[in-house]
Amino acid sequence: MADPRPAAPRPRWLGPSAGVRVGATDFFAAQRANRRRTLVLLVVLTLIAAGLGYLLGWFMEADGRLPSRPGNGAFSIGGVLTALAIGAVSIGWSAISLAWGGRMVLAMTGGHEVAKADEPQLVNVVEEMAIAAGQKMPRVFVIEDAAMNAFATGTTSGNAAIGVTRGLLNGLNREELQGVIGHEMGHIANLDTRYMTVVGVTVGLVALVSDMILRVMKWGPGRSSSRDRGGSGSGGAGGGGLALILMVVLVVAAVVAPLAAKLVQFAVSRQREYLADATAVQFTRNAAGLISALQKLTAAAQPFAGASRATQHLFIVNPLRQFGSKASALMATHPATEDRIARLQALGRL
Amino acid sequence: MGMGGWIVLGVVVLVILWAIAAYNGMVSRRNQMQNAWSQIDVQLKRRHDLIPNLVQVVKDAMAYEQETLKAVIEARNRAVAANGPAEASAAEGALSEATGRLFMLMENYPTLKANDNVMQLQEELTATENKISFARQFYNDSVMALNNAIQSFPGNLIAGSFGFTIGQFFNVPETEKAVPQVKLR
Question: Which residues are Zn(2+)-binding (chain A) (predicted)?
Fold first, then answer.
């Protein structure tokens, strides 16, 4: 959805920049809208993970697998504790992934680092965008592959890297290359690697917990509740009935939650792509270069062998599938290129 | 101390915390602005160093364009001598105009366009011009962030008592906008 608010007049402090028309652009408003949508999606994802943990804890408590006793109504201490435990594991796992992820990505895509002497124009353009973003100069990589693609990675501004394929370098002119690098620098400035790592870990954890639930359920309900508890205490038959209802709910949740989490992950990824596009225009003050680059990348669409499901969201266009309108489906890491171009045109009023 | 006393104390503590945060925010914005300015400075110096090299390389081939070459060197020398954002803006604008005219004339010399050395220098100058304009853009954004913090209420109270002054925008003179873009490819 386009932002319904009218574009603000171009503020005077922008100053004219390098012969670039910007018109009545408001990339700052576009960025705010994207950040708001990311936040909503992150809240939804957290609710999915926490809800699944809560259900699991509640069920285990009602089923007598946890030492705590079921409370009144829907409040369950076991549920809260399980949800918190999932949260803790998610944070720890994210921290580990953030510490190691960057190096793995670079190894997986198979690029080699270049210096200014090897690729003066590429390194110059990256430096230009780093200046525009107020970021440290990232490391620059070239992947010797005819496919046209580019990626950015790095969890802090200190360990950031940008990689482009040889096909991209050969196929784009300076202005288009600047648009692509601006997009990648946008990912770095917006901390997208961090976002997607945390989101990926949470989605993985939801899948893991759901999988565990379904495995445990194969043993059937009340494995422990059928154990004679001597009729003592309040657990008893009422607890067993609750356990049965909760079990059904839990199984349904265990099937639905991973799917829902995955959809949220893709939605976050698409929002971050739009955000990086808008940020690229903020840096270059030139939507035309990126538009033209996206058109060329789409026209040349050939899959890039160095990418995998684990790294596909890092690239400027999805390296694994066609980027036509089919890509606007819910299960895509990238919005359809036509949609991205339409938004860029609205930004640039070109 | 009664209820009212605690409330007053709480408000005072909050105000002090806010004042500290506002002061630190202004300091970091001022530092960012100064850092951004030094970034422009680095790129301007780079351009001042590159231009004599380019003139040196093309001057034999462009023997009939002595006027343009002289104008470039003079504009460059004035830019080197400029002091502070306001003066530098004007001098750098004139220099951009002069080099833009030189690039345009160079289009008429196919031997120059085929010369690796010239192409390399031209890419460097184009990149440096871009870096200057991007650094200027980031500098102006930083100035605006600082000025907003200083001039808006109630931050202006803090700014007034600690002597924060508003930053100066790096404006581009009108003439620079008329310069045609140099396309390398």
Answer: 183, 187, 273
pLDDT tens digits along A227-262:
444 433 444 444 567 778 888 888 898 889 998 888
Chain A residues whose CB is inside 8 A of the B137 CB are 14-15, 17, 132, 285
State what percent of residues in chain B have pLDDT above 70: 91
What integer best gives the mean pLDDT of chain A?
A: 77
Is A273 one of the annotated binding-site residues?
A: yes
CB-based contact A15 B137, cutoff 8 Å: yes
- A178: exposed, middle or buried (Cβ count in 10 Å: 0-12, 13-18, 19+): buried
**A180 and A281 in contact (C-beta within 8 Å)?**
no
Helix axes A287-299, A236-284, angle to 10 degrees: 110
d(CA B11, CA B5): 10
- CA separation for the pair A98, A55 (Å, rounded): 29
Confirm if A129 and A107 have CB atoms less than 8 A apart. Answer: no
Catalytically annotated residue among A61, A128, A176, A184: A184
Distance from CA of B168 to the nearest CA of A (A): 11
* A183 phi, psi to nearest 5 deg: -60, -45
Which residue in B123, B136, B169 is closest to A120 by CB distance? B123
Give domain limits for chain B: 36-167
CA atoms within 13 A on the CB side of A220: 4
Least confident of A18-27, A149-158, B36-45: A18-27
**Share above pLDDT 90 across residues of chain A, in percent, rounded to a whole number:** 18
Weakest mean pLDDT among A60-69, A184-193, B37-46: A60-69
The upper half-sphere exposure of residue B175, i.e. CA atoms within 13 Å in the direction of its Cβ, equals: 13
A124 interaction partners in chain B (CB closer than 8 Å): 123-124, 127, 130
Q: What is the CA radius of gyration of chain B?
A: 24
Alpha carbon distance A68, B27 (integer Å): 53
* pLDDT recorded at residue A72: 62
Confirm whether residue A183 is marked as ligand binding.
Answer: yes
Q: Supply the ipTM of this predicted assembly.
A: 0.73
- For the stretch B18-58, pLDDT in tens is 999 889 988 988 888 888 888 888 888 888 999 998 888 88
